[in-house]
Amino acid sequence: SCLTWLCFPIAEKTGKVLGEFCRCYKEQYGVALFNSVRYEIEGNGGPQAQLLHRKVPLEDHVIYSGNIFQYIEENKKWRNRFCVVPHNYGLVLYENKLAYERELPPRVLVNSAGYKILTSVDQYLELVNNSLPGVTSKSGHSPILKCPTDFPLILWHPYARHYYFCVMTGKEQEKWRAVFQDCVRHCNNGISEDSKVEAPAFTDAVRMYRQSKEQYGTWDMLCGNETQVLSNLVMEELLPELRSTIGPRLKGKAPERQRTWIQISDAVYRMVYEQTNAQYDAAMARCEQERPQLESTIRTDMDQIITSKEHLASKIRAFVLPKAEVCVRNHVQPYISSILEALMTPTSQGFAEVRDVFFKEVTDMNMNVVNEGGLEKLVEYMEKLSHLAFHPVKMQSCYEKMDQLKLEGLQQRFDVSSTSVFKQRAQIHMRQQMDDAVYTFETLLHQELGKLQGKDDLCKSIQRILERVLKKFDYDSSTVRKKFFREALLQITIPFLLKKLAPTCKGELAKFQELIFEDFARFILVENTYEEVVLQSVMKDIMQAVKEAAVQRKHNLYRDSMVMHNSDPNLHLLGEGIPIDWGEEYSGQPEADKRRRAKQVVSVIQDDEGALPYEVGAEALLQPSSPEPRELQETDPGVPPSSPDGVKEIREALAQESPGDSVGAEERLMNGPASPKPRADVPAEAKVPHVTPASPIPRAESPSLGTETSCHQPSDQETGEDVAPPGEECSPPQPTVTTESGERVQTEF
């Protein structure tokens, strides 16, 4: 009833925020288009990268797959799910491994953008208590969630639905945590940097909108694709009002009120997402429609636009620069070296760890190839090495170096809400550098293979190529880190300066509008030019600080004057060729085997101890004699646990083992099914039954779920969460699988 009463205010509030944002976006679109065309004409490239860049790093591969327990809120039961993380980093949960192998639709699809990974129920309860002030579970009352093992994994989001998982051991928990964190890191980085107009227009519009509301500095919820970011922007304003209106109306004990609040927040978030998706698409379409005419004007009048902008900048500079320089001198300059040092230490340690992991993996491969048998072993190891950068567990030692990043008092002084933005950005750079190094290594080795004779030649060639790649890595690493340090320093200091200068400068900016010719008003904005002047006031100090660090060879940074001459002039031509498929090229398999192998999904992570303990039980649990997957049960198999409070019974069930089978406890926990959401781009004959989306779905287009080849590899658009309504489930031909309807339906409000 609360939601029905609030439906119109939610739509109205969302429309108001999006209307203001779309106005900002239209303004920033013209500026971004002008900057893009000017860059294309004038060019301003930095040092050329020495390493090659792989165009499609993870095509047709799976990051990880395995079994994990999930808590199903609808029927308050823990179920064993088979979880697959495809190349787009969505979390895809199947009823069991057999359902995945039969290419049945998944139960749940989760886009993890904006989520935090928690490994403690206490951490989760603290966040839940903070989300609804004044509602805290009293001692003695059952909390909102109880976990049957000591190793939970909880996906928490400030607005959207939460997801609850657990595993049996600490080692599994660490592995899944690394996998989930990789998913969050990738999905958070959802705005494509390949877009030279739309992406900067969008991020600048978000920044300008928030600054118009007196919100400066970094924003933790700039996560996911454009629609997700805008939904977060709306919820940031809507949630306090929603909480104050609905909070006092919630009934029941504290855990029940908390649970209801989470469900309401998720439902509102989905409503906001759908409205945002439609309005943002319409705004983009209008800008795209205008683009040809705008671009034609830019190319025709480029010189006049530049002259007009420089004239405006000179006037603003004369007014702003004296005040800005005083502010920089008194409030920023004394702290630049401290901020830089705080950034350099963990970042450089992380890149050094990337180098060490790469060196170790190649060296171990070289030794194993020599000891175990030449080219055949090389192919096997190269297939694994080619995905090293996307191995969450092996890369974890690199990523965790960034956990040391602390800005201490600087964080409060410069109003930096969190360091997570910088940690995540550095980690993405680490993964990219690792993949560039691996791709360069395999490209050079592939070129050499035809010339080699015997294992000794192969061993020497691998070592020689490794040394060449490490030199290139050191150079590119220095370039990438220096750029990252400059950008991070600007991200920290510019919002601080803008906030400091706003009382004396911002109100006077309107008088400069008359200096812009009307024909050029779409490409020159007073606000943007003002920010560029403020940036120039501090840029010299930032550049100097980074330069001094490089001159002193701190953290193995190279001087800007050092240019690495390309010892491989044809290397970048090699990188433009067809991607290397080591298995296809050197496996010696018949064509039929190759085709069969191509349909298999190869997990990047290989468990050193073999399969996970309960990864083998799906087939055994789905014998014709037992058509229904077994549930988590009490001693009496006919009486399932009625609530999450039956933890003792759950623990007893988990502790039981079948005679002679050490993994029986886990195998008993297999069940659950669900259907994915059909998409508009799916042909009518390929569509699955309609369902209501349970959380935001990314925007990218891709093959339909109905096709044979794509069913088990969901696309970027298919990483929201969908739960099928009763009676609309795709079942395998045999055996027939049925489950309780409570697990298949959405929570209704």
From TrEMBL:
Sequence segments annotated as region (Disordered): 625-749
Coiled-coil region list: none
Signal peptide per UniProt: none
Domain PH span(s) in chain numbering: 61-185
One Pfam family named in its UniProt record: PH_Niban2
Superkingdom of the source species: Eukaryota
InterPro entries reported in the protein's UniProt record: Niban-like, Niban_1/2/3_dom, PH-like_dom_sf, PH_domain
Biased composition (Basic and acidic residues): 678-688
Transmembrane segments: none
Biased composition annotated in UniProt, kind: Polar residues: 704-717
Family of this protein: Belongs to the Niban family.
Name of the protein described by the UniProt record: NIBL1 protein
Source organism per UniProt: Sapayoa aenigma
